[in-house]
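Thought: the user wants the 3D structure for the chain below. I'll pass the sequence to the structure tool as-is, report back what it returns, then summarize two notable features.
Action: structure_tool
Action Input:
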Amino acid sequence: MTAFDFSLIDRLPSYPAGAGRLLLSAPPAHGQPLLLFVHGAYHGAWCYANYLDYFTRHDVACAALDLPGHGGLPQDATFLHAGIRALAVSVQRAAERLEGAVVLVGHSMGALPVLVAATEMARAPAGVVLIAPSPPANLPGAAALPLVPEDILRAPPGDAEIRERFAGCAADVDVSAIRVRLCAESPQVLNDRYALRVAVNPFAMRSPGLCLEAGLDDPARHPDGQDRAVADFFGFEHQLLRDQPHAMMYGERWESSAAVLLDWYQRTFDRRRRGPR
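Observation:
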């Protein structure tokens, strides 16, 4: 599978999850937790196609979620005014539908509905993984960003920004496979993050976690030390992946980021399965 081949996602069975859509790659096996991948702004479950293939081949159950209005789901007036907490409902519904132990994995903006869901679900997730996360509002020193107009959907970035910020690739690389799948974004969702409107109680976090920092990320959105501060805020392990762009799940070196996540998963849950020594 090449870095920009997302066709796997079009072949997976799908199920409703609130106003979102759950795509299942590999069902739970061996009593181990399932990885539930949640995308960020402008994206959809498709952005995890490489990860879904990788973890299925490594015998780890996994699924991805199309949040409402993403991945080809309808973008109506409800979506225009939907914020982060509305998206968190679909994360919770997806986790409930999966029934067994689930590790919630959120990328960028998707980290916020994952954190909200993880701290408010009746049954805590088995784990939480944040990939280049947007910070919660109550993170000390979190960086706010300029707001966007709230009366119109926000168009997705063009090729230059896709190459520079998302994929971290050269200017002559064809990114049309990414561009055609990106969607417009709810301005409410964006401004919830930009204006730091969504606070998450760190004392309500009951799950072990991992925060992956992209070393090639945009310093305006991820200033030095912010991703590590997010990890410390929730008591998560932090790893800086110096060669990774913001969308490390499909960047040219995506497999090395998947290997870091797999290592954390095996260290965390294989140890738990063996029990105390």
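Final Answer: Structure generated. The chain has one domain: 7-274. The domain at 7-274 is CATH 3.40.50.1820 (Rossmann fold).
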